[in-house]
Amino acid sequence: MTSGEHEDQDEGNVFGVEDPFDQWSETPDEHLTAERVAHRAAAAAVRRLVARLADTSASAEQLLTLAERLDRAVDRMPAGARPGAPGAEEGIAEASLVGSQANRLFERSPFVGRANPVAPPLHLAMVDGRIEATVTFGRTYEGPPGSVHGGYVAGIFDEALGAAQSFSGTAGMTARLVVDYRSPTPLNTELRLRAEMASIDGRKITCTGTLHAGDRLCAEAEGLFVTIDAERVRQMLERGGL
């Protein structure tokens, strides 16, 4: 897609893609550069390491040996982003500078980012005008014994409701998030999260969501998002932050 074609798009679409939901869509490996695929693989390995550390019978000697090896590995790894590294070789994320930066931010997300070892990760899908998501939290995310920390529950709601508000066709930022915890959210269990846009009132977009473990309702949430100026969003994406 050419830059001219992007200029003909709806001004409310600020992500450099035809469908605003693509901002939350996971880019398939085949559309990524070799470096980006490797980044995902490295993050997955670190994610496994963190999970094992949270529940291991290793001795103090074994842990200290591991720490020394990890320190040496980190010291050999170059710091800083590789100049000009795109989020993808072709397609959505490569369509524009803004689209490429949006993809990089998605890859680094602490909740859905495949290239971020901190992310569980949460997997999102668009189904019949709403968001359907699945996630499994290990012991790394434990709050109450055997249960997911409430802060992470709120975090995945913020991510999923944020994806749902993209159905408005504009970019919005979280203004308020209210979570009602109905029952403990279990660890090591596939959780199902549903989010949908409830209403639009001027610049205000309200979304609601539920979180289930099997048939059990764990939490409900309502989020208020406020649309922001398209040019401001472009500037934020181009410089990678606020």
Overview of the structural elements:
Helix content is 33%, strand content 22%. The chain is globular and about 60 Å long. The protein has a single domain, classed as Hotdog Thioesterase (Thiol Ester Dehydrase, Chain A), CATH 3.10.129. By secondary structure, the chain is α+β, with helices and mostly antiparallel strands. The N terminus is likely disordered. Strands 1-2-4-5-6-3 form a 6-stranded antiparallel β-sheet, with helices on one face.
What is this structure, in a nutshell?
This protein is 33% helix and 22% strand.
Fraction of residues in H or I helices:
25-40%
Provide the CATH architecture.
Roll
- Rg over CA atoms: 19 Å
Count of strand segments: 6
Poorly predicted parts: 1-18, 86-99
> Tell me, what's the shape?
globular
Q: Give the count of structural domains.
A: 1
Assigned CATH superfamily: Hotdog Thioesterase
CATH class: Alpha Beta
CATH topology: Thiol Ester Dehydrase, Chain A
Oligomer: single chain
- With helices defined by DSSP (H or I, 4 residues minimum), what is the helix count? 6
Give the topology string: H per helix, E per strand. Answer: HHHHEEHEEEEH
For this entry, give a set of tags:
6-stranded antiparallel β-sheet; 6 helices
Layout of secondary structure:
Layout: H1 3-7, H2 34-53, H3 60-76, H4 97-108, E1 123-127, E2 130-135, H5 150-165, E3 172-181, E4 191-201, E5 204-213, E6 216-227, H6 230-239
Antiparallel strand pairs: 1-2, 2-4, 3-6, 4-5, 5-6
